[in-house]
Structures are given as C-alpha cells and as structure tokens.
Here is the input.
Amino acid sequence: MPEHILFLTGKLAEKSLHKVLESMQPTGFTYDIRQVGISVAGLMTADLVRRRVNDIGQATRILVPGRCRGNLDGLSAHFGVTVARGPDELKDIPQHFGHAGKTADLSRYDVLIFAEIVEATQLDIPGILARAHRYRNDGADVIDLGCLPDTPFPHLEEALRELKGAGFRVSVDSLDPDDLRRAGAAGADYLLSLKEDTLWLTDEVASTPVLIPAAPGDLDSLFRAIDRMERQGRAYFADPILDPIHFGFTESIVRYAEVRKRFPAAPIMMGVGNLTELTEADTTGINALLMGVVSELRVSAILATEVSPHARTAVREADLARRIMFAARDESSLPKGYSGGLTTTHERKPFPDTEDEIAELARAIKDPSYRIQVSSAGIHLYNRNGLFTGTDPFDLYPHIRVDGDEGHAFYLGVELARAQIAWQLGKRYRQDEELAWGVAVERRAEDLESFKPPGSTVSHKLRMKR
Here is the structure.
C-alpha cells in the first residue's frame, strides 16, 4: 500500500502546491492538501497545526513547510504519524522526493587535505594552534607547518609537540634538510619535500616523505625516488608539482597523468595553491575543477593554502569539492545536483517563481504588509495597494508608504538591497533571510524548534513605546 502524505500549507501557497504535486505524477505516494487557515505558509507553527488540524484522514505522514517552527516530535506523538519539514520552497518539493537532482551522500571522500600554515615561523604557539583548529573545522586532515627560506624556526619542535598533543596529524614543509631532520626527530607525520639527493633523510626518521622532482619537470628523478621507496617498502606521496597558468600548467597536468600511468597504485599529492592563489578568479570554481582532475587521476592528497585574501576559504571549498567528486565518480555521474555549496555567486535555479505567478499571488493580498519576491524580470514589491516591479530599489521607492516608521523603512531598505543582489547575480532570495553564499560564508545555525526573538527594528520600536 503506497504512503499517503498530508501536505499542510497556507492560503497563498495552496494553488501552487496543487500544481507542483500534480506535475510530479505518477509518484510512489498518494496525498491530500490541507490549508490551515493562515495566509503565509512560512508562518505556520507546531502549536497552530495542533489547534487547527483535527482530522488527518488516512495520512501515514504529514509534511509541513520547511520554515515551520516548533517541536515536530510532539506533533508526531499527538497525531500518531511522523510529522516532518519539507523544503523551504514548495517548488523544491520534487527534488525533496527525488524527482529531480540527487539525494547525495557527501560523507565519503578518499583525498586527504593538507592545510599549510605558510607563515608558521612567524606565529607563536597559540597562533599556530588557533589556525590548526580552524583548518580542521574546515575539513583539513593534516596540518602543514611551512618553513620560510633563511628564516629561523626555533619553536618548530614545540609547535609539533603541541599539535600532536591536540590530536593533529602534522607535516612540515621545507627544502632545508636540517628543518626536515628536526621535524622528523620531533615526530612529524609527513615531510615535504624530499628530492632524490635528500632521500637519505628517510633512513634517519620515520616520517612519510613527499617526493618531488630534483629539478622542475624532471620526472625521471621522481620515478627513481618512487622506485627506491617502493623497494624499501616505505610509505610516500609523489608530487610532480602543479605549475601556475602560463608557467607550465598544462604540461604539469600531463606529468600527473604520466606518474599515474607509470605507477598505477602510487599515492600522489597535488599542491593546488599555484592555481588557487595565483589565479585572480573565484577559488570555488578552481577547486571544483582541480578536484575533478584529482578524482579522475585518483590523487590521494592535496596541499591547500589560504595566503591570498581571495583564497581565504580554500580549505573549506576543497573539502566539499572532494566529497562531491567522490559521490559523482562513485555513481558514474556528472558532478551536478549533489550540492550548491560551490556555486557561491550564482545558483542553478535562482528564480523559483515566474513573473506571472508572483502577479497572481499579489492579487490575493488584502493587507498592507509588503512582500518582496524576485524573478528573472526583476524585484517585485507588493501589498494590497498593488504590485510594483523594478530592477533597482530606488525604482520602487515612490510606491513605499511607511511614513514615520523608521524601523519598517530600514527593514525594507535591507530587504530590497538583498533582493537586488539576488536578481543581479542570479541567486535565491527569501524575504527575511540572509542570502546564501555556499561554502564561502558560514551560515548561522538556526533552531526551528524555537521561535525567533524580535528583530532589532521591532525591539527598537517596542522600547520607544515604553
């Protein structure tokens, strides 16, 4: 017997919900739609549902709007069936039920992220630990301590001790054999980077070496170093070195392919900073493309940096990109539909409602409260006095009537500015919510089990009335 779902909604969304569910047919479930007597579905609460829904019919599950606040476990106990939140936008219901896009498992990955603290020599121990914790929270598996040429690192051993004591895996990156010897003796897990003529270090320390060519592009020397490590049964990573664009980038990608062809099972590392740091473009796209190459070549680890201000979320981006690429490769699929986290400035489906649908909704409004929506045609502002459309908030100013209410005026200014940005870039806009910027900006966690406190404009108005 198919599942029977009761969809709860508001007056303004009821018609659209019917259309969306009808467009999904056939489905693996049957359904009813119940309008609970409020205009805006997003204002639904668990207490309101308990008061207004007396009969759930044959429902085996109840779906409420994604913004519904309150304790749904209590509702589930009250009705005797599961009560769950659907998506925030009713136009996303097909995807919620798997009719579009993919329900992705992004918990899996097979690429280690080494996050380099490039200026470790210049930071004190608390500074190094703080950076390490941030990188780990962003997805890093290994913390890399960068050594600068001709720059003393007197607290290297102490930094290693503190990081290891805090549970970090640690690598040290230097071309100075003395730095690497000290790091290995102090317990570094990995050493970057050993050339053919410094492999003697592997006889003195237990750290896993990252091997690089003796000279730029010298794959033969890298092959010999790999052969030596494999004969000795030593773990290692091989890094042919990724070069910047116009300084050998394409040829360096070819080198990675050659290493993989020569050594099918070799663990390979790719330092991605020469692309993310040295290309003036959004790093989300660069990381997505590079992690696609990493996935195809079965590269085992990357070295990421966040030196340039425009690359300040590179570790977080690489973490999401490796998960997306793993899932897509596992399903023999294109890397689409798994997550929107890397589309920070644009979205695949930015405007869920058409201009005509918004106009139809606006005609049903009978109160003075302003609603704001965005379509491909522009920004739509409406209340009972009419629907007004423009591409610049200043175009809409003549139609706004909030005389004497500075809090409301401020609120509308903020919301219209957000709406303009969303229209210009092609992003989802939802009134009363900050724009989403994918992995580039961490969103504050929101507890839908509780209710939002009054915003600053409302609080100010209440204080002024006292």
Observations:
- The chain has three domains: 3-96, 112-330, 355-456.
- The chain has a mean pLDDT of 92.
- The first helix runs from residue 11 to 23.
